[in-house]
Amino acid sequence: MEPHKTVAAGRLCTEEESYREAFSRFLAGTDEKITTHSYLQGIVQSLPARRVFLDVGAADGTTTRHLAPHFERTICIEPSEPMRRTLALACPQAEVVAEPVLQARIDARPDLALFSHVLYYIPRDQWAATAQRILNWLAPGGLLLILLQNPDAACMRMVHHFTGLRFDLRELADELATLPPGVVGTIDLDLVPARYRSHNLDETVAVADFHLSIPGSSSPTRDSVEQYVEQHLRDGDGGYVLRHDQHVLRIKRPAL
């Protein structure tokens, strides 16, 4: 998961700072950015046009900054004011829209739209409408990438254990496949591997807490999280490993 922001716009600044600190700990021990950026680089190189890039829920701009140089224009949707400040430093050339995606207005036709790890914070009954809104912005032949953790990987099994929640892009793919002709061309699902490693129990528990901080769910006790980490995440070498492979839904808009 990433520090979004999108539906957490009312979160107090101090809470956002705490959330971002936990996210930083997670980034220090995971290969997610390396594997994800490599995957996205290949996608970008395959695009027939690279005029406009839209990053929906750009957060701190780490991925935005990586992809923006390949496009003539970059637009970001980011409702969180603290995140927008960081985004402006990371990617000053990006145009930033402060409204949430369902209220945002985009004056461009993106060739690529990225919607990365935001759906955890959007009510399930709004997933399809949110994805369709982004699809409607795309240029003919444009591509929408939706990233979410694989629900069958260790991290999401942990989330389901403590919260009962399950987030599955395969369900969204089935819904989008029923949209009228002209909105969706092809739909494909990719898997991008990722794992977090640590030899520090406290750090691993903090990272687990980070992944369990989902709006609307109750927070488990630290003792229960530590017990889960010790039981399920030990790597047999004195450390801990948390697999958090990502699903990527690739949705192409039909060309004219």
User: Taking strands numbered 1, 2, ... along the chain, how are they ordered across the largest sheet?
Assistant: 3-2-1-4-5-9-6
Q: Percentage of helical residues?
A: 25-40%
SS strand fraction? 15-25%
Ends apart, CA distance between termini: 35 Å
Mean pLDDT reading: 91
Brief summary:
With 256 residues, the chain is of the alpha/beta class. It has helices at residues 13-29, 32-46, 62-67, 81-90, 127-137, 154-163, 169-176, 201-212, 222-232; strands at 52-56, 73-77, 95-97, 112-116, 143-149, 186-192, 195-198, 240-243, 246-252. Helix 1 packs across helix 8 and helix 8 crosses helix 9.
What does this structure look like?
By secondary structure, this protein is α/β, with parallel strands linked by helices. The chain is built from nine helices and nine strands. The protein has a single domain (13-151, 163-196, 245-252), classed as Rossmann fold (3-Layer(aba) Sandwich). The protein has a seven-stranded mixed β-sheet with strand order 3-2-1-4-5-9-6, with helices on both faces. Strands 7-8 form a two-stranded antiparallel sheet. Strand 4, helix 5 and strand 5 form a beta-alpha-beta unit. Helix 1 packs across helix 8 and helix 8 (201-212) packs across helix 9. Residues 3-14 have low confidence and may be disordered.
